[in-house]
Design goal:
Largest sheet: 7 strands, antiparallel
Helix content: 10-25%
Number of helices: 3
Strand content: 35-45%
Distance between the termini: 47 Å
Structural class: mainly beta
Shape: globular
Strand order of the largest sheet: 3-2-6-9-10-5-4
Low-confidence stretches: 165-174
Oligomer: single chain
Length: 174
C-alpha cells in the first residue's frame, strides 16, 4: 500500500496561489437534461501536436455530476467584458442558459456562448482522478476565433480584465 507524502493544507495552497492569474473560461456540454455549463479557471493547453487541452472539476461539483458522461465539451475563453457571464456560470441554483445568456448550438450539438474571445470544441481523450478533482484531457476538434481583445482573469479572488492584443493574423480556424 502506497502512502501519500504529506502536503500543505488546502488553505495554505489557496493563499499561495491567489496571486497567480488564471484565465477564465466557461465549460459547456450537451446532456440528456439540456445544456450544462460552469465557469472554470483550470483550463490549460497541453499540446499543440496533437491539439490537446485540459480542465479540472471537483468530483463533488453538481456540474460534474451532469457532464461526467459527456464525450464532447465546449470551452469558451471569456473576454474582458464578460464578467457577468463568468459570475452567472459560477452561481448556484440558477438556469445558467436562460436569458440574458446568449448561446447557440455548435458542432456535435455542444452549447456555445455568444461573443467570446475564442471557442473550442473537444472530445474526451483521457480522464484522471487526482485528489479531489477529475482532470479531463480533450482532443481539440474545432476552434473559432472571436473578436480580438483582452481576456478575463481570476486574480486575488476576483475577476479582472487582462490587457488585450489583437488576434494573430492568419490564425487557424476550423
Amino acid at each position: 500500500m502506497t502512502t501519500a507524502p504529506p502536503t500543505v493544507g488546502a488553505g495554505e495552497l489557496r493563499a499561495a496561489l491567489r496571486g497567480h492569474a488564471s484565465g477564465v473560461a466557461v465549460l459547456t456540454a450537451a446532456t440528456p437534461d439540456g445544456p450544462a455549463g460552469v465557469t472554470i479557471t483550470s483550463f490549460t493547453s497541453v499540446s499543440a501536436e496533437p491539439a490537446l487541452v485540459s480542465f479540472a472539476l471537483a468530483g463533488t461539483s453538481s456540474t460534474w455530476a451532469r457532464i461526467k458522461g459527456c464525450r464532447r465539451f465546449g470551452i469558451q475563453l471569456l473576454g474582458a467584458g464578460q464578467r457577468e457571464v463568468a459570475e452567472r456560470f459560477a452561481a448556484r441554483g440558477v438556469d445558467r442558459f436562460a436569458p440574458p445568456t446568449r448561446w447557440h448550438t455548435g458542432p456535435h450539438g455542444v452549447p456555445l456562448l455568444d461573443d467570446c474571445v475564442a471557442w473550442l470544441v473537444g472530445a474526451r481523450h483521457r480522464q484522471l482522478t487526482l485528489g479531489d478533482h477529475e482532470l479531463i484531457v480533450c482532443v481539440v476538434e474545432h476552434v473559432r476565433i472571436g473578436a480580438p481583445g483582452g481576456g478575463l482573469v481570476h486574480l486575488h479572488g476576483g475577476l479582472h480584465a487582462a490587457p488585450g492584443s489583437p488576434a494573430v493574423p492568419g490564425g487557424r480556424q476550423s
